[in-house]
Each structure stands twice: as structure tokens, then as C-alpha cells.
DNA sequence: GACCAGTACTAGAGCGCTCTAGGTGGTCGA
DNA sequence: TCGACCACCTAGAGCGCTCTAGTACTGGTC
């Protein structure tokens, strides 16, 4: 070998990123002590701490995440699959960041995109040693999710899943749609259509909620094929225009509602005078001043918080309020029952609904 | 210590994730050989390769990304900051994945979200040892970008930046808006307003493109304050309705155009009969059948490809077509001049533009 | 002065990989 | 018969951290 350097002196490449070793030499202390200081762990005097931090700052030292993760017993990493460009996913992840921080965890993102499916995204998360998985409205089969959940603690958000070991945090979709129908009936509507979500995860529940709500009020269900995008809503609107309009429509989600609204308005239908429209999600879209959509809100922040709490609980074997028994990842396939949390939705009444014409 | 185990035998925790060592023992070969096989590196016979892979598969072995990154001389990692929920960013990242794959690199994402600013996102990328940085329409100051670019190869997408060492890949925004104006003038419009992007990165260029295009045609500029969101477009529409409408509007982007469109249509203005509207980006939004927006398209895929090629070139010191001199990260602050690539936009004519009424 | 507890610090063994240098056995030309 | 050479494989030293075990030094207590 041309040249091997012992720990205490190495080739002085000024462009190498500084390591613990560099800081330690410069500050005249051991690597271990620098580690203690930068981690903020107890065991260093205030004066040393200050000096080491000053040197670290001066050298522009930043700990290498990979080395740290490798050396640490615990990764304290939670992996999330996120569908880029989707407003709901964005809201969820935004809620996840403060939540993981509270528990001393870090978040690692893996995107699903055209050409990069969910399986691929999850594999990346496993490779990065995630201790827990958060799947936002995944489209994987229940059996696939069950297999995954046997490997490590897994939480599914915003989708109903019946699989062992999978924690679920979702909104009571049926109740939400029920609230929308109740609201419309309360305004005097008797002819209420539902533009559904087809085969999408939550579509079944929302359809059921709609059906039982209208029946409860002695009305006939009026189902229309829809989907999750504006395009689906637009298609449904054309369908309804051909059939003859109801006085109110409950849509699968906000995007669908917006597509429907747009086609109706362009055709000269007045909203809410001629027809009332309700969305689902209370996304940014619904809040736009000119859209001003009555919609059913999901408490995304709370969903994020609960999913993290649930996973951390399963991983640590205790909640941070009780830091008595944190003995490393406690996940064992034989683990206890897993919780399904169903959050109540809340109707947000805005300007797209009113009493029907002639009342 | 209660018990330390040498490399060749360790506590048989069946829930530990399998390592190279486990595969090696099971297959009766050395760790180094397993490493060679799983990396697909040359130096193993076909039969051994098959046997090792079979064992790896049987144990469910997956290489630990952190260990791999730590041990490898080169990280071959490109970091991207991505604004979650933004369609343009989503398109860019979707284009980035196949591009990095072609060059044998991996992508690491870091999100900007409410409560998590760009600086934080970039720091995470540095901690993860990214060899290059891709910033999509960053809002950092040019000086900040320059400082960053001195640390490691940095590419900025979709924003004009004048900073040493920063590679820039962007669309000729002024040309794009010019094409839109030319199109409208060609249809016979003489009164063309521009809803601008305020202080946003590309807004200046688009404003300039608008101004010089209308002047070229001997018309007067009609600037209106806008922004990047639907809300901004809606506000601009109300403003225009108060002023008296032009016969055509060129908007800062598609979202802005959609907001504007919506308010106009709700007011009873017919598009394109009463007014023509042009957007910018050719996003999914513009393609929706009921929106059907004439817009200026950016070649996002090509931007992604070019940014990656540029970074890889600077990092490797050579392009993959010429794998002669790959001698590790070659980035030195003294490095040569850095390229700015300006791609031509292309006008996509759809249904939101037509000849003005009375012609 | 011996003993103890506590604080401040260090040595050194890993974490799971990669990669260089070197070992082994077989084939082949001289 | 002998090296030269190749194909295949192994040993072992890191990568930059964390963390356990242990050392040195202080000050109080009987």
C-alpha cells in the first residue's frame, strides 16, 4: 500500500468534509467527547462543550447521517411513501414533520411517481433502515400490506385496511358523506346525486354513507360514476346534464367537485342557485375564494400525529411520556393487537350550497 | 462485557435483518465475495453467483444503504429539494428519476413544507452526503446559492440565477410569453393584458417578454398584479372586471389562469368568445378537457435530464459516454465556467383562445 | 488517610458495507 | 519443468460515527 495513515493524521485534502476526528484534533480532545458534544449528550463540561462547538462551527462540521445511522443502535427513522404533486399527501407530510420531531425521530421520504411504483418506494425505505412505515392511501393489496407489516411496524393513512399488524388511521368517510347529505336535506333538497370514486380506496365507504343517508331521509339514491380527478368530475357533469340535473350533488372529493362545477358553470348552470355542490377533503382547492366549496374536512394534522404516535408506541414499546422502558426496537411479529383509529369528519359549509330554487 | 461475538458467529436473533455476513456463512463463501455478487461486480463465477443470490434471496437479504454509502468512496447521490404538492415540482422529480438511473446515481429527496424551509431541506441533503444538489425554482438569494455552490456542484432549475459555480437549466420565459402574445396578435387581438407573477423567480422575465412583444406589435402594455396561485388569478380577474376587460390575457402560469378563468366565467364572461386566456407551464391543469387552456409549455423532462447530465459531468469530470477518467468527485472550487442552458418554450394552442369578437 | 461518589474524559470495539492487496490453483507456452 | 498468467476467491483495513467500559481527578466524610 502506498500510504496508510493512522487515525491521528491523514492526508490533508482541504476539500474533504471535516469529520469528528478533525474537530477532535483541532480542539485537543478525543473523538468520543466531540461525539458527546455534538449529540448534546450529557458528560461534557460547559466550557469544553463551548470550545468544541466553536471548533466544529469554524470547520463547518456536520455529522454524516449515514455513519451516524450505522453506528447508532436505533435508527429512529420513519419512512413515508408520498405521491408527489398530490395536495392531500403534501398536507399529510407537512403534518408528519413536527410529529416525528416531537418523538425524536426523523422522516425519510420516498416518492411514488410515474415509472416508480409503490413497491419500489417501500424497498428504498427498507434499505434506509426505517424502523416504521407510513403509507398514505396506498394502493397495494391487503395481503401485500400484511406481509410488509410483519417485517416492521406499518401505519396506513386515509384508507380502510383489514390486515393483521397494520395500524390504520382514517376518517369516517361514510359519516362525512352522511353529514353532507343531512346538510343538503336540511336545506330542502330532495334530489341529491352522488358522483363516486369508482374503485378508489375510500370510495366504497363514501358510497355506503351516501346510500344510507338518502334512504334514511326517504329519498332515492342517484349514483353517478366519478373518480378522483377534475377530469372525472367533468365527465360526471356531462353525464348529469344529459340525464337532467338533480338539485344537489355530493362529490367523491374536492378535485372531482371542481371539475364538475366548472363544466356546469360553463354550461350556464348557476351554483348554488340552480344546483348545490359538496366536495370532500377541505383541500386548498375548496378554500379558494372563487370556488368557495362546501366540503367535508379530514383532520390531516391529527391523522399524521396519531400515525406517528402509534408507530413510535409500537417501536419503542412505550410512549415518550413514559420514558421508562425504551429498550430498542421492540417489534416482534407476535406483537399485540393493532389499533384502527377512525376520526370524525367535519362539514365545512361554504358558498356552493343553498336552498333549492323554488323554496 | 457479558458476551462479545467474533465476526463468524453472533447472537441468533431471528428478527435482526440479515447482513452480508449471514449470507456469506450460509453460502460458505467470504463476505467480500457476497459483496461482489450483490453489487453485480466482476470477479465471481456464474455458478457461485447463482448460489449466493439464491441464499440472499432465501434470507431476504437487502444491502443496508447507509453502510454501503459509508463504505463506498463515492456516494453517487444527487439531492433534490422538492416543494410537496406542487405539480411542476412533481413533474421535475418524475423526470429526474430515470435520468439519475442512466448515470448510475441515486436520488435523495428533501421536502420543503410549511415549517420546514429550504435551508433545512438543503442541510439534510448535505448530511446525507449528496455529491450534487438540484434546486427546483429555489427562493434563496443568489449569494446564498453561490455559497452553497462553492461547497458542491449545484444546479438550479426553472429560475434565472447569476451566481458563480451554479449551473442553470431554465426555459426562455420571455420568449414563451412573446409566443403567446404573437399568437394572440395573429388572431387579431389589440388589447392584451398580462397578469404577472409579482416578485416570483421567473416573473421578471415573463413581464419583459410581454412588454417587448406588445411593443413590437405597436400595442400598449397592460400590466396587472398577479401571482402563482389560483387565488392570485381570481383577484386579477376582479381587478380587470372593474377596469373593463381586454380582449385577451396572458397569465403568469396555468394556476393563475385557471383562477382568472373561473371568476370570469362565473361573472358570465364567455371564453374564448368574449376574452382569450393563455397560461404558462402546460401543466396537467391546462390539459383538463373542460379547462382546455392555451398555454406555454416547458420541456420538464429535458430540463431534468440536462440538470443531471451537467451535475454528473462536473462531479465525475467526464460524461458516461466516455468512461475513461472517472477518478472520484472532481469538484474543486476553482473549477471551470459553469453552464446556463436556456430551453425554448413551445406554445400549445387549445380552446381558450380565438379571434376577438367582431372580427 | 482511606474510602466513596460523582464528574470529565478516553480507549477501542463495533455498525454493515467496499475495496485493495494478496493467495490459490489451473492452464499454457517455452 | 518452470514461470507467467488468468480466473476466482479471501483477508483485512477502513468509511465516520456511537457507545460501553474504564481511567483520572475532584471533593466530601468518617
Can you give a write-up of this model?
2 copies of one chain form a homodimer. The first copy, chain A, contains 13 helices and 12 strands. Chain A has helices at 20-27, 31-39, 46-59, 65-71, 87-102, 118-127, 142-151, 173-187, 203-216, 230-243, 254-266, 284-287, 300-316; strands at residues 77-83, 106-112, 132-136, 154-157, 166-171, 192-195, 223-224, 248-251, 276-281, 294-297, 340-343, 346-348. The first copy, chain A, is elongated. In chain A, helix 1 (20-27) crosses helix 2, helix 5 (87-102) packs across helix 13 and helix 10 (230-243) packs across helix 11 (254-266). Chain A is of the alpha/beta class and 359 residues long. In chain A, the strands form 2 sheets. Chain A has a 6-stranded parallel sheet with strand order 2-1-3-4-5-11, with helices on both faces. In chain A, strands 7-6-8-9-10-12 form a 6-stranded mixed sheet, sandwiched between helices. The model of chain A is unreliable at 1-11 and 318-336 (pLDDT under 50). At the A-B interface, helix 4, helix 5, strand 2, helix 6 and helix 10 of A face helix 4, helix 5, strand 2, helix 6 and helix 10 of B. Chain A binds a DNA duplex (30 and 30 nucleotides) through residues 1, 4, 19-21, 29-33, 35-36, 39, 41, 43-45, 48, 63-64, 66-73.
